[in-house]
Amino acid sequence: MILNVDIYNRTNWLKIAFLIGGVIVIAFSLYYTDRIVSRIEEREKQQIQLYAEALKDNLMMEMDQSTGSLVSQIIQSNANNSVPAIHKSHGGALISRNIEIPPGLNAKEEQAFLQKELSDMISGDHGTIVFDNGLGQNDYIYYGDSKLLNQLRYYPLVQLLVVVIFFLAAYLWLSSSRKAEQNRVWVGLAKETAHQLGTPLSSLTAWVEYFKTDPRFDEEIVREIEKDVQRLDTITTRFSNIGSVPVLKDENIFETVEVFMNYLQKRISSKVHISIQNNLSDGHQTVRINKYLFEWVIENICKNAVDAMGGIGSLTITMKESRNKQIALDFSDTGKGISKKNLSKVFNAGFSTKKRGWGLGLTLAKRIVENYHNGKLYVKSSEIGKGTIFRILLPYEPNMTNAGNHLSEDTASQVSNVQS
Ligand SMILES: Nc1ncnc2c1ncn2[C@@H]1O[C@H](COP(=O)(O)OP(=O)(O)OP(=O)(O)O)[C@@H](O)[C@H]1O
Ligand SMILES: [Mg+2]
Fold it and tell me: What keyword terms does UniProt attach to this protein (predicted)?
């Protein structure tokens, strides 16, 4: 189903396009703000120069009334009403403009405070304006950035942060509501399927019972029909378990896998060699599972393995203890393997590389293991032309001493048994 693969490729391209679009918008916004900052910086520099000129004139000239008031006006307001500046006279006294001096300081403390501000300004990247005060002595003006300039410098970063938080929150909300929606569809569909199958199934069961009592019907045929009806019953039970909260029971994992693999072996190619390797100690074989659903998981994984091997090869199921009180079940096949490109897609609903595949087997298996059994299902490794290992992690019940274990001592001792 190449069509499905294309859908995933398209989605990836769309994501990349959105990402590139976002980066371009952000870069443009940063560039534009940087240009505004440069312009304001230049204007503030001119303001300070004008302020210095006015100070110089004020100090040097004997002025008439009107010129004097104009110069003081420039000094007091127009030339600089926002840029923090300190005028250091030849005598060393500091006079500040647009600097908030903490209240309650005496003259000495105020000078010390301004001295500190001055050091900050000197260490900044603005130059110092030096002018002659008319007595052959130099006065100095130091200045920093206005509040507006500082705010504008950090504005794009704040804006960026807000946008990122907003998109992250929106993404999380959308993906969680999408997941909830998917859950509802899965559960609803499964419930409806179980319900639809229920009626004809009970009728078929009744018919089989009737055939059994009537000698006109061939016993062998009736037995085969009964097997099919039982299979149908198992399928219906699986769907009804998916559609409701499934009941979990303590089961012996080795026994569950062994029984099911025996069943499966008869239904697949005889050229597929199945073996089970059990490395679990006696006390760690009990897991809480829903047998019907768990068998469905094994079936999906094994059928995929058989498909990948083209009906010839070997499938080994290894059971061992893993970290964090978990049991690891490895399904390893000698099939064609999964390409790197497809590794991240195999659990996507609808992804299939088979002519007649629905691409639902692994999605379903993952849901069953992770949502209903608190476990994990993933591809442990895969190599093209060599094979694949799928791993299931299940929490074991350490306090249960093989509650569901009906294996005889003999069977248990054959822990590394091989069956075919
Ligand atoms: N053991 C494996 N070896 C190689 N490829 C695999 C293996 N298991 C799964 N795949 C790949 O993952 C894809 C998805 O598997 P999945 O079981 O979800 O769907 P499907 O088998 O194609 O269809 P169906 O819904 O009938 O199971 C497969 O089409 C195949 O390409
Ligand atoms: Mg499959």
Answer: ATP-binding, Kinase, Membrane, Nucleotide-binding, Phosphoprotein, Transferase, Transmembrane, Transmembrane helix, Two-component regulatory system
